[in-house]
Design goal:
This protein is α+β, with helices and mostly antiparallel strands and 146 residues long. It has 3 helices and 6 strands, in the order ααββαββββ. Strands 2-1-6-5-4-3 form a 6-stranded mixed beta sheet. The chain is globular and about 40 Å long.
Length: 146
């Protein structure tokens, strides 16, 4: 899909990440072929200050395939200007019996064919709230008398 013809950037970025993960988990197709389907050869992804080029991205697919996590992307907002897309989304992952919720601020550049050229992501893992634990500075929860 041409990034220049995108009418709904929220749907585009959700489909991008969902499609990439689904293709990785679908069969044993060479991970390099899948990476190249979604990324340009000069891809640079920076997540929380850690850069991945094409080779590192391909290597990163190995644990994804091994662990086969379930995931869902919830896009809260996305804005497209030319070939650049900014989005705020939450990634919900279940991996080896553990649920993770990761908030992501994404800034990316895409080729005209919809493949990612570069991205910068800031992430924050949030845990599910435990009603028995109070937030720092908040009063402790009291149980109702029976």
């Amino acid at each position: 899909m041409s990034i220049l013809s995108v009418n709904d950037p929220k749907q585009f970025i959700a489909d991008f990440f969902t499609g990439f993960t689904a293709d990785l988990l679908r069969d044993e197709e060479d991970p390099a072929v899948i990476v190249d389907r979604y990324h340009t050869p000069d891809i640079i992804q920076v997540a929380d200050g850690h850069a991945m080029d094409r080779g590192k991205l391909i290597a990163h697919t190995r644990p994804v395939r091994k662990n086969r996590p379930d995931s869902r992307v919830e896009v809260h907002e996305a804005h497209l200007t030319g070939d650049r897309l900014a989005a705020r989304y939450t990634l919900h992952v279940r991996n080896r019996g553990t649920d993770l919720t990761i908030e992501v601020c994404f800034f990316g550049q895409f080729a005209s064919d919809g493949r990612m050229r570069s991205s910068h992501m800031l992430t924050r893992t949030v845990s599910a709230p435990n009603p028995q634990e109070a937030a720092p500075g908040a009063p402790a929860l009291q149980e109702e008398p029976s």
